[in-house]
Amino acid sequence: MSDFRPVQMRSPVLTVRRVDAYYAVTVVAPGIAERFRSGQFIAVAVGGEQSSMLSRRAFAIHDVKPDYGGTVEFLFAVRGKGTAWLAERRSRDLLDIVGPLGRPFPLPRDPVNCVLVGGGAGSAPLFPLAHTLRRRGCRVDFVLGAASADRVFSAITARRVAETATFTTDDGSFGVRGRVTDALPQVLEDAPSDVVYACGPMPMLREVTALAARYDIPVQVSVEETMACGTGVCMTCVVPVVGEDGITRMARSCVDGPVFRGERVRFDDVGTIPFDALGAPGWKARGDDPVSAREAG
Amino acid sequence: MSDFRPVQMRSPVLTVRRVDAYYAVTVVAPGIAERFRSGQFIAVAVGGEQSSMLSRRAFAIHDVKPDYGGTVEFLFAVRGKGTAWLAERRSRDLLDIVGPLGRPFPLPRDPVNCVLVGGGAGSAPLFPLAHTLRRRGCRVDFVLGAASADRVFSAITARRVAETATFTTDDGSFGVRGRVTDALPQVLEDAPSDVVYACGPMPMLREVTALAARYDIPVQVSVEETMACGTGVCMTCVVPVVGEDGITRMARSCVDGPVFRGERVRFDDVGTIPFDALGAPGWKARGDDPVSAREAG
Amino acid sequence: MSPDLRTRLANVELANPILTAAGCAGAGRELAQFFDIARIGAVVTKSVMLDPRAGLPAPRMAETPSGLLSATGLQGPGIEVFLQRDLPWLLARGGRAVVSIAGGSPAEYAELARRLSDAPGVTMIEVNLSSPNLADQGRHFTDDPAAAARVVHAVRSHTRSDIPVFAKLSPDVPDLVELAVACVQARADGLSMINTVRGMAIDTTTMRPAVAGGVGGVSGPAIRPIAVACVYEVHAALPDVPIIGMGGVRTGTDALEFLLAGASAVAVGTVIFHDPSACVRILREFEEELEERGVRRAADLVGAAHRPMGAQPAR
Amino acid sequence: MSPDLRTRLANVELANPILTAAGCAGAGRELAQFFDIARIGAVVTKSVMLDPRAGLPAPRMAETPSGLLSATGLQGPGIEVFLQRDLPWLLARGGRAVVSIAGGSPAEYAELARRLSDAPGVTMIEVNLSSPNLADQGRHFTDDPAAAARVVHAVRSHTRSDIPVFAKLSPDVPDLVELAVACVQARADGLSMINTVRGMAIDTTTMRPAVAGGVGGVSGPAIRPIAVACVYEVHAALPDVPIIGMGGVRTGTDALEFLLAGASAVAVGTVIFHDPSACVRILREFEEELEERGVRRAADLVGAAHRPMGAQPAR
Ligand SMILES: Cc1cc2nc3c(=O)[nH]c(=O)nc-3n(C[C@H](O)[C@H](O)[C@H](O)COP(=O)(O)OP(=O)(O)OC[C@H]3O[C@@H](n4cnc5c(N)ncnc54)[C@H](O)[C@@H]3O)c2cc1C
Ligand SMILES: Cc1cc2nc3c(=O)[nH]c(=O)nc-3n(C[C@H](O)[C@H](O)[C@H](O)COP(=O)(O)OP(=O)(O)OC[C@H]3O[C@@H](n4cnc5c(N)ncnc54)[C@H](O)[C@@H]3O)c2cc1C
Ligand SMILES: Cc1cc2nc3c(=O)[nH]c(=O)nc-3n(C[C@H](O)[C@H](O)[C@H](O)COP(=O)(O)O)c2cc1C
Ligand SMILES: Cc1cc2nc3c(=O)[nH]c(=O)nc-3n(C[C@H](O)[C@H](O)[C@H](O)COP(=O)(O)O)c2cc1C
Ligand code: FES
Ligand code: FES
């Protein structure tokens, strides 16, 4: 375990590039690069030494390279105050980064067929995953969606890595007009798939999970819940997740996730405490050995 | 009056230079440069858009140049959080600056003999003053003091501009060991002086004022009281100052000063409300036309 | 079509809901160097007392994270100078004047109200209740709803009937809603919230309290969530009473937040020290926020956060 | 010579005065990835209750200027899992355990205290009084000094005599000193202050309260001046009662500020979310601050800001 534990470092920015609607930041972070496994993320402090912004911003790791001892790349769209600040960084600035964080995507043992489904910036963690899967001899099919053409993520890379790459945009400005979940059934029909990996907004993950269930394919989803620390201490990033023991727990998406088995996440109850969750109001203990009860995830 | 009113601008940083213990920052600020008169200062917002630091930092204007439509230079030593942030600025960064602020040094009509006394960073406003006085045919003698050699301000410029330049350091690492007030009597003896201008910490200003009084020379002091706004609205920068009507008022050093006639400042009562100040506890109105009572300054 | 920004505070209508906060903008003169003060909803003036007041000794402020700790002690020239010099200046520039008053007894407040009612051009009176009650060993009027009510009642009785009287509350009270209700029962036409929050800083160099008064008031964005909670709770209890919300407003989004919580107008205080143009910038940003959301009338948003999910105002 | 950092909290001596704040560091496990938790004064654990608790729905937090607004609802595994899993883990790593407890009645608190007294290795108990009193329509124990005193008394009576009991207070009370005195009279060995400050934020996109609970607690540097004032005032009233100070500690200078105000130890909370190494960094900075000032013993500085000018401790 201690080999995989995250590190905190002040990482020099190597480059900040504009890529369509996104910014791609590459930092020198050897400790993070060497520990990284697909699906993990970093948590970045924003605003400098006297920042008024206390919560770290989470970004999926999009790429790691061996240069300079190890670099890490992440991509983001400017959304609020923190990403606006990040977009203004220049090369040689230092960023306070913690990573790699979270439970990575579980990888298949055998060279199976994998469908990777991503929405907007949520596509980022699927790229290192695709490379890893390819290295293991898996077939990769991409389904990437976004609001508009400039928000579709790394289309060229997706085409290069994957057997097929399907794109959807809400406004039809690129690929098929519609949502990824409109295009996904066709992809699942065309190539017999063994596992689905998905990353994006909660409603999309819910639908992808439902579709995969219909085709009886296991699905791994990476959720994006609001986070303050990323390290498991603040308890703000919880989602209701069913454990192996059948008990629902409010699981921290930063350490118990962000990757969960899709059917374990109670999507319809996100934003609530399900009445039957462990410790919900009125909940009464079942079984008498709470410690051995496996944690959710 | 409206010609002299301050402006607020987002000024690009031209250069940031290290000068001994100080940083010299030059910004492009035409509106400020053109309005500037010696003794005035700027108030700089620090920490960027999402700064946790709300009060502006005051810096004397050290130089203005006509380049790029008008540039302004200020010098500072790193002291706390705000100056630490400023020291990290680079060329092309934008600074939110308000200026020029405050009452400038009154200038003599005739080509008289002037002694300029400065302590540490407090010497900054004396340099544009020296140039202006020289242009009017005045004789200028400098007495500059600091804790150590690397904190003595622009010694070379001082020597070039002035008839004589005397330096003192607390540790004797440059010039005479001791304080400016140790060296000042000799300077006043050597050249018959008509006016003293002083800028530096409050205890120094008090002593300079006392010395000038002993030699019966008028003295203009520029005080450095903690400021939050610099524009006269927060009422935090007050010092007790005697008005022309003999009444002591808590005068705002940012708009009623920072330059006051030395003998008007009640140095011994700084940090108190003198019992006889206008509106002090127990104070009773004298005279019946409070409006016509001239403001302090 | 640009949104309708007008707002109503009791029987007064203002062109827009962005005001200055008392004590953070003088009587408008200094800020007029940076923008046309006739453009904002109103200038709330520094609390004026009967006599000149020297205030507290320096240091009067310390910077705190996203806030300011201050103790100025209501330094000011007194009502005489205010009426002869400051008010006419503000009116001549086309500014709307909300005059904040402070005193040590209901009688002093009443006298101030009377003098202001005799003067032409006062749009509203704001009663700063965070002032020591001389009859009660220096406790503040806000500490005791009955004492606060006596002041409000005295002011209302001596104020011309067409001038609304707003009571300004402090968050450091045992029960804010109880205080608010007491003021409204004493015929306050509206409420202003919040005054600064009790706080303190120690100078780690001198090892002494950082402001001469020891305890001071915290203001600025740091206290915004505290202020929003106060506005929300009082609006929930008294939905028909107009509120001027304040505490750390820095952007148009912050102003919008106060409206949604229940304020009909928003005052900008400490942020003016940081940005002398803040009021007009916030007004512009606020208008943009409404445009982005397709909101036609700012007034429709007042208290919208109290409505059940999905019942937010029509765009 | 490096300064003596030891501090005394009732009959317990800690190696240094830097602790974690309850609920901001779990039971130490996550932070142990970033530093050796045996190096800090103690780990104050997340408030534990008798039964498992799911907490409040998400969203549970919103960022505010230099602060965090949160409402997590004391999610936790219950005392059973805590004693079997969390406490042994912490003790095995050499950590000092200050266990925070919360309940709905004096009896629940008493039961928690009894269970903890039976377990080996508990250094101190911190009684989180900002928990709804089930017998009083959900009012918090801190709202009523008598109710708070009953809880403290119950805990003290059921706690092994060598384990100090600290009462943790909220700033949102009618009279903090009165509450503190009530707790001490009920035999609290010391006080922890402050818990979060009541606050709220409105999400301007959804136009609804930003945290699911509506009202939440503000923490972080934004509340530091409020916390310092609380510590200062209570130390002035009860100079012999040890205090654990907290609220927005970000640097060693901030820790020093709390000591000067009257705290014997300082807990770091929200800033841990921002910097998981915060506690050891602050410890290092604090030591440097003492060295720069030539202070030989940290304990000499406790309450120094209360001494008359010039009577600050010998260097
Ligand atoms: C595991 C994970 C991986 C992510 N990967 C990426 C990525 O690769 N690229 C990308 O563009 N975005 C990613 N996000 C979303 C990204 O974290 C948010 O866009 C970002 O935090 C917004 O910050 P802000 O300051 O611009 O917004 P603000 O609205 O100012 O943020 C305010 C607060 O809300 C939190 N917050 C706001 N939106 C989100 C969100 N969607 N998820 C989590 N916290 C949020 C912030 O952390 C902050 O605490 C990821 C989120 C998670 C949880
Ligand atoms: C009219 C005037 C002219 C000045 N000119 C210069 C100059 O040319 N060069 C220079 O190096 N310094 C100058 N100073 C002092 C300079 O303003 C302070 O050094 C600076 O504000 C410290 O900021 P900080 O963030 O580093 O310190 P911090 O201690 O973090 O500041 C905290 C707060 O205290 C205020 N403050 C702290 N020290 C001072 C001070 N001495 N004067 C006013 N406010 C203070 C800051 O504005 C801020 O609000 C001048 C001050 C005044 C009033
Ligand atoms: C320096 C200063 C002076 C103030 N003077 C007054 C005053 O005279 N009367 C008053 O009612 N409030 C006064 N206040 C409180 C403000 O009007 C406002 O209620 C409070 O600061 C919160 O708003 P803000 O965070 O935007 O500053 C003052 C605040 C500050 C910081
Ligand atoms: C997310 C979160 C959870 C908290 N949980 C607890 C808790 O379980 N028990 C408790 O006594 N205080 C709890 N607190 C309060 C802190 O211990 C502390 O008193 C407060 O946050 C002020 O310190 P800070 O500003 O350093 O965070 C919690 C605070 C936060 C932000
Ligand atoms: S983000 Fe803090 S526990 Fe997950
Ligand atoms: S600094 Fe604000 S009035 Fe002078």
TrEMBL record, chains A, B:
Keywords: 2Fe-2S, Electron transport, FAD, Flavoprotein, Iron, Iron-sulfur, Metal-binding, Transport. Binds 1 [2Fe-2S] cluster per subunit. The keyword Transport applies. [2Fe-2S] cluster binds at C229, C234, C237, C254. GO terms for molecular function: 2 iron, 2 sulfur cluster binding; flavin adenine dinucleotide binding; metal ion binding; oxidoreductase activity. Signal peptide: none annotated. InterPro entries: Cyt_c3_hydrogenase_gsu (IPR012165), Dihydroorotate_DH_ele_sf (IPR037117), Dihydroorotate_DH_Fe-S-bd (IPR019480), FAD-bd_FR_type (IPR017927), FNR_nucleotide-bd (IPR039261), PyrK_electron_transfer (IPR050353), Riboflavin_synthase-like_b-brl (IPR017938). Its cofactor is [2Fe-2S] cluster; FAD. Residues 6-107 form the FAD-binding FR-type domain. FAD binds at G82, T83. It comes from the Bacteria. GO terms for biological process: pyrimidine nucleotide biosynthetic process. Transmembrane segments: none annotated. PROSITE patterns: FAD_FR (PS51384). Belongs to the PyrK family. This is Dihydroorotate dehydrogenase electron transfer subunit.
TrEMBL record, chains C, D:
PANTHER family: DIHYDROOROTATE DEHYDROGENASE (FUMARATE) (PTHR48109:SF1), DIHYDROOROTATE DEHYDROGENASE (QUINONE), MITOCHONDRIAL-RELATED (PTHR48109). Belongs to the dihydroorotate dehydrogenase family. Type 1 subfamily. Catalyzes the conversion of dihydroorotate to orotate. FMN binds at K46, S47, N128, K168, I194, G220, G247, G248, G269, T270. It comes from the Bacteria. Its cofactor is FMN. This is Dihydroorotate dehydrogenase. Pathway: Pyrimidine metabolism; UMP biosynthesis via de novo pathway. It catalyses: (S)-dihydroorotate + A = orotate + AH2. Keywords: Cytoplasm, Flavoprotein, FMN, Oxidoreductase, Pyrimidine biosynthesis. Its EC number is 1.3.-.-. Binds 1 FMN per subunit. The keyword Oxidoreductase applies. It is found in: Cytoplasm. Gene3D superfamilies: Aldolase class I. HAMAP family: DHO_dh_type1. One of its GO terms (cellular component) is cytoplasm. One of its GO terms (molecular function) is dihydroorotate dehydrogenase activity. One of its GO terms (biological process) is 'de novo' pyrimidine nucleobase biosynthetic process. The active site is at S131 (nucleophile). Substrate binds at K46, N128, N195, T196. Its main location: cytoplasm. Residues 5-290 form the Dihydroorotate dehydrogenase catalytic domain. It comes from Marinitenerispora sediminis. It is an enzyme of class 1 (oxidoreductase).
